[in-house]
Every structure is written in C-alpha cells, then in structure tokens.
Amino acid sequence: METPLQQLHSKLWEDRGIALWVKREDLLHPTISGNKWRKLKYNLQEAKRLQHDTLLTFGGAYSNHIAAVAAAGQEFSFKTIGIIRGEEHLPLNPTLRFATSAGMALHYISREAYRQKSEPVYLAQLAEQFRNPYIIPEGGTNALAVKGCTEIVTDIPIDYDYICCASGTGGTLAGIIAGLEGNKQVLGFPALKGGEFLKEEIEQLIHRYNGGRYDNWHLITDYHFGGYAKIKPELLDFIRSFQQEHQLPLEPVYTGKMFYGLVDLIRSGYFPKGSRIVAVHTGGLQGNAGFQERLGIAL
Ligand SMILES: *Cc1c(COP(=O)(O)O)cnc(C)c1O
Fold first, then answer.
1. 35-140 architecture in CATH?
2. Among 167, 255, 285, residue to substitute to test ligand 1 (most atoms within 8 Å of Cβ)
3. So what's the pLDDT on residue 229?
4. pLDDT tens for residues 81-110?
5. How remote is the C-alpha of 222 from its chain's centroid?
6. 154-174 as b/e: b if 16+ CB within 10 A
7. Could you tell me if the CB of 150 is within 6 A of ligand 1?
8. 15 CA from centroid of ligand 1 (Å)
9. 5-31+144-295 has which fold?
C-alpha cells in the first residue's frame, strides 16, 4: 500500500538547501483515514481469524478512529460498536453522523467510566454485554497497530534524513521507529501536553513489538498549542496559508500542528544544510467538518 510522495517547494527551505516531501497517507483510503487504516489492517485480519463478527472500540465524539472503525466495519463486514466518551448531543456531529450511517451502534458513557477503558475487569464486562466483540483500544493503538504502522516506512522510494509525524497515543510513531530499525532520524510532534509520558509509552510499544530499543528519535513538545484539540488563531492562519501555498489539505488537531512545528524548526535553523525531510500526513481530514460546525469557522 504505497502512498504518493508530494514534494513541497518554498523559498524558506530551498534557500537553506533543505528538501521536503509529504507522504500522503491521507490518500490511503477514502474513509478509513491515513494512520488509522495502517493501525486497523492487522487487527481486522486478527478479528477475522478469531471469527469475531463485531468490532468494539472507544473514542471521543470527534474521533478519527471512531470514524475509521465504522467505515472498516462496513467495508469488511463486521458489526461495529462505538463506546463514546460523554453525553449524547443531538443532532449528531458530522463524525458520529458518519459513524452511524456506516452502521456503528453508539453507546455513551460518563467521563469517569471512560477512564476504565483499559481495565481488564471493565473490558470483560463489555465483552459479556456485547457478546464477545473484538475489542480495539482507544486510538486503535496495540501491538498489531504498531506492526501496521511499520509499513508507512517500508516503501518510501527516495533517500532521506528525517521523518516527521504527529503523535497522539504514540502508536504510529512507535511503528515508524520500529520499521526503521535505527535508521534515519525520527521526529514526533505530540498533539497533547505531556511529552515525557508519551516517550515511555512509545518505548514500551516498540519493546513489546520487536524487543528493540532505539535512540534515533525524539519528541518535539513545543507545538501542542495548549493541548489536545486546542487551537489558536495563529495555528488557523498558518493552516490556511499553508494549504493555499502547497495545495495540501490539513486539519488543526494533528497535521496542522506538526507542519507548524516543522516550518518553525526549519526557520530557526534546526536542520543542517542539505537535509532531506519526509513529513507524514496522517490524514484525519474528516474532523474538519466537526470543527467548522462547532466553531463556525472555515479552514
Ligand atoms: C489518530 C491520529 C494521529 C495520532 O496517532 P497515534 O498513533 O495515536 O499517535 C495522528 N494524526 C492523525 C490525523 C490522527 O487521526
């Protein structure tokens, strides 16, 4: 599953002898977006192998992962159940409207209950209540997701020095790092506060996947803009002008923050002359409709 590489041109980096490409994982599938498809691939195979007829997973009301699981269930003939954090709001937002139209059954739980989403006792209870579904964790991140994300880097047909990726739970970054086996430099851009916690999480995900420990990566923690799904006017301005200049659609939760950070690092001289950089577009564009509806803004 090779996705296109799009080279981006700008005086800002070309004057510094830097070349930049975007790996368009957002084009991987029309509705199972970007890294969520990579993370689901081996989970779907495992669910079939174990003869489950239902997928159950967790997410917030605007979750890219919820939308992706709903679409995957429809395409690969699983029933799907979404355990949604918080109360039901009607009319449904665009993400949940899409999920239900793809056949997903939604169950809302309180924020307190949601905190138990990884507890074995709670999962056993859900397994009984929903008749033995295949349970996928929040954000889709587990060892099979890490395996799927190693494939983001297996067929990049150019030589490069750095690869950049936005990070939430860290599953995608763990897969990229594990797939590169110590080669290249990997930069992760957390979309949430709390980079130190994420570092440990990623180390554990890699270790569980292939027993490896690598030191060719680090987290750039300065571009979360206040936390998950928090946005600031300068981020929106950046996204609008970047999209126009490069004909590249972005969203403000992950990819917009990563590109903002990447451009800022280039400007500040972080990358040596001659650097060749690949930035991964992890998708997530389905979330823009919800942002526009909620905030009354256009991107
Ligand atoms: C979910 C998501 C991420 C975060 O991926 P993790 O594996 O959880 O780190 C990044 N970008 C987009 C667009 C996403 O939807």
1. 3-Layer(aba) Sandwich (3.40)
2. 167
3. 87
4. 999 999 999 999 999 999 999 999 999 999
5. 18
6. eebeeebebbbbbbbbbbbbb
7. no
8. 31
9. Rossmann fold (3.40.50)
Ligand 1 neighbour 170 (Cβ under 6 A): yes
Per residue in 1-55, pLDDT tens?
789 999 999 999 999 999 999 999 999 999 998 999 999 999 999 999 999 999 9
pLDDT of residue 294: 85
Rounded-to-integer distance, Cα 250 and Cα 242, Å? 8
Q: How far is CA 145 from CA 83, 113, 176, in A?
A: 19, 25, 11
Q: Assess whether the C-beta atom of 190 lies below 6 angstroms from ligand 1.
A: no
Q: Do domains 5-31+144-295 and 35-140 have the same CATH topology?
A: yes
Res. 58 pLDDT band, cuts 50 70 90: very high
Structural domain spans, the chain = 5-31+144-295, 35-140
Ligand 1 center to 242 CA (angstroms)? 20
